[in-house]
Design brief:
By secondary structure, the protein is of the alpha/beta class. The protein has four helices and seven strands; from the N terminus they run H-E-E-E-H-E-H-E-E-E-H. It has helices at 7-15, 80-91, 105-113, 160-169; strands at 22-24, 33-48, 71-74, 98-101, 118-122, 132-136, 143-151. Strands 1, 2, 3, 4, 5, 6 and 7 form a seven-stranded mixed sheet that branches. The longest helix is centred in the middle third of the chain and has 12 residues, at 80-91. It is elongated, with a radius of gyration of 18 Å.
């Protein structure tokens, strides 16, 4: 079966033997865990196709100060995407007009599809949809890592070991 949750919930589920593998953007240094970095992706802006920013020429990147007039939809506190977004905006001295907090990436995506605001995702997490446009951000844009974890003691288990081997071969 597949379970979903935020990074902390998934690492906890791993520690409690509820799942065999977990992905997370948080760097966890627990010595009980085996960690493989799967990759990194820059943060990108996700807007509704009818949003004013979506109508800008695609060649240019979006300046962070353009986010000051919008409702920015963010994940809950503790989300690595939120943490990096807030750090990026603070460094650029940009304060969004409003912030709307929603607990899951899927729900945020649905809110942007309904034109309730804009959001920032790791570029590879911004799934295709005819009502969404993914735009590159200008300036110092952080990258979001993605890690695969398993309990070190279980790394040779029948289903876990081949999965880890496949993940390492695709890096």
């Amino acid at each position: 079966s597949i379970q979903s949750g935020n990074s902390r919930q998934m690492i906890q589920a791993l520690a409690e033997y509820q799942v065999d593998l977990a992905t997370s953007s948080h760097l966890d240094t627990d010595p009980r865990l085996l960690r493989i970095e799967l990759g990194r992706a820059p943060l990108a802006l996700v807007v509704h196709v009818k949003h004013a920013l979506a109508r800008r020429p695609r060649q240019g990147k979006i300046a962070l100060d353009a986010l000051a007039n919008d409702t920015l939809i963010l994940r809950e506190r503790g989300s690595m995407t939120r943490q990096l977004t807030e750090q990026m905006l603070e460094s650029a001295r940009v304060t969004p007009h409003k912030i709307l907090e929603i607990a899951s990436r899927e729900s945020i995506r649905e809110a942007v599809i309904r034109n309730m605001g804009i959001s920032v995702f790791a570029r590879h997490e911004a799934s295709a949809h005819p009502d969404l446009v993914v735009l590159d951000l200008d300036g110092e844009v952080p990258t979001l890592p993605e890690y695969l974890y398993c309990l070190r003691e279980r790394r040779h288990a029948q289903l876990i070991e081949p999965f880890l081997q496949m993940a390492q071969s695709r890096r």
